[in-house]
Amino acid sequence: MSRLVLRGISKTFGRRTVLDAIDLDLADGECVALVGPSGCGKSTLLRVIAGLERPDSGSIEIDGTDAADVPTHRRGVGMVFQNDQLFPHLDVADNVDFAMRIRGVDATTRARRVGELLDLVGLRHLSGSRPSELSGGEARRVSLVRSLAVPPRVLLLDEPLTGLDRTLRDGLMSDLRTILDGMARENGTAVLVVTHDPDEASFLADRTLRLPDLGRAES
Amino acid sequence: MLVLLLVVTPVIVLATSAARTGDLTAVWSRPGVTDSIRFSLLLGVSSTLLTVLVAALPAAVIGRRRFRGRSLALAVLTAPFVLPTVVVGSAFLALLPDSIDRTIWAVLAAHAFFNVSVVIRQVVPILESVDERLLDAARTLGAGPLRVWTNVLLPIVRPALASASALVFLLSATSFGVVRILGGPSMATIDVEIHRRAVLLGDVSGATVLAVTQTMVVLAAVALSARRHRPVGGPARMSTSADLRRAGPRAGLIVGVAVVLVATPVVALALSSLRVGDHWSLAGWRMLAGTEALGGPSALRVDLADALTRSMTTAILAVVIATPLGVGAAAAAHRDPRWRVLFVAPAAVSAIIVGFGILVTFDQGFLDWRGSALLVPAVHASVALPFVVRAVEPVLAAIPRGLDEAAATLGAGPLVTWRRVRLPLLRPAIATAAAFSGALSLGEFGATAFLARTDSRTLPVLVDLLVGRSGDRPFAAAMAASTLLFAITITLVLVVGRRRPA
Prior knowledge:
CATH architecture of the domain at 1-76 and 182-219 in chain A: 3-Layer(aba) Sandwich
Strand content of chain B: under 5%
Oligomer: heterodimer
Order of helices and strands of chain A: EEEHEEHEHHHEHEHEH
Number of helices of chain A: 8
Structural class of chain A: alpha/beta
Strand order of the largest sheet of chain B: 1-2
Shape of chain A: globular
CATH superfamily of the domain at 1-76 and 182-219 in chain A: P-loop containing nucleotide triphosphate hydrolases
């Protein structure tokens, strides 16, 4: 069954057409990589799917229901941002806890789940650290598990490995693959990864799409 | 809404009743009216010149040199700005010999004491944000120490210096508390003259014309300077003082002298609160605590302990009103910058005029709120509101949009985002703003002087009343009250207001 269906999504900023009639289908538990040159609208497409940006035209369906008018916080779309966007006033554990806390999950369940998630990326010892004390790789891992705490229906990753040095990247890449496979198995979460690196795409994803191919031919 | 009601409406009412006054020429020819305008201008210009002269060296040293105790020196030198005007007036009354009291020199000294902190507050952050390497570049191009200052640093701080000078001029020309306490009987700024006409002479039309003239001139000046003000690039890089060169002995001496000069009046104030006439006594403090009566004829009885309680409750109420409203106003201004003007402009209207306007506006029919116990706290809150907006809005604007977006993708709606992300990030700014509002309310004198009735006086109003009386006991009581006001204000602003985020 299709988890996410985009039909004819277009977005224009001023006179620049960033997205031109994009069609895209993601099946349950599928991981798709989206590649393309920088500035071709990959990030904008993610923002449209998350509801952070309103498309000029086109439709978005999540699990068979129209999501166009559903605000971001009710869409069930998780997102890992390029620059992590960890909350500076919360420590690592509270960042991961955020989504569960605002949904009123009980404290013991939350504490257990935060521990599991931090174990998953080997950062339990940093529970009490502030985001400002983390290295780039650590912050990215925290940001990743924060978006998984309440399993999203669709997970969007915006250049998840960009800005990290070589060794960190390789380590995180295999961790990421394991985590995404687990998510797909347990929750059927569909994943859309934006990247400019074809190697990364083929390693992480079940299939790779070029964004320019998804839109109108002439663009 | 509160600002509109308590600041804008009175100004409009004043303007219309000024128009009704009709024979304006008659008002202008009344004795003291043109004199007060002339005196305001003279006092404004001379205070500004003296302040800039006194502030220049310490600002230069603190802005460009690092030394042990630099942040302490900065805290001491910027503190007078938050002190109540009656406290500054009393301190100089205590410090200066009788031969200088009640002369323009006393007023000028007090203005310089108060306003040096305005200049340092605005100039030092700009000075210290200048990268030492830029100056090194100037040096390799052949600029000597003096040239570095005149050709590089001075042009960089000129806008800040100009806006500080404009503010000093405004504050000095509309001075009320200091002139009331330190000035002689013939000395009147426009604000003092408005008060004298409205309250003592019952000449409401004269006071109205003066109030409207002053407000229009001030608002025009503010509008003009706001238009000319162009923000310079992004936020200035906050350099750590490690980047700065070490201070030499001469620089240390300059800062030392400045700190001593600022501390002296306060020490004199505290000492004179412990004296009655020419012997040591705690009578002033006992009268403040309510354990000893002031004495004197019963018509002149005042209850200091009662005024102290009232000042504290008023300040707490003002903080409780101004803080949430200010945060809401900052949020509105953040969404739509056009709101900014409305929230920030009232700061330019002098408190005297707010008080007088309310006196004229709310004195009849269903608008008779002057007896309401909430009126004075509400007025203090609307005087404090622009400061809350100015403290909170830049911090709100600095919160990255990505954090809001991250919160939304994690399931947080707008309200939850406010509660869990924005408010926690704004907390230090809100604490500073609340502390400042409290300090402002505790020291507010201009508007309260109009609005407080005999049975509802705040501490600053009583201080003004007591220093005007003859005798050593009222004087000691006034000094004790001022010392206490000083202690509360400085504690509020330095301890609560400077608390750093965890």
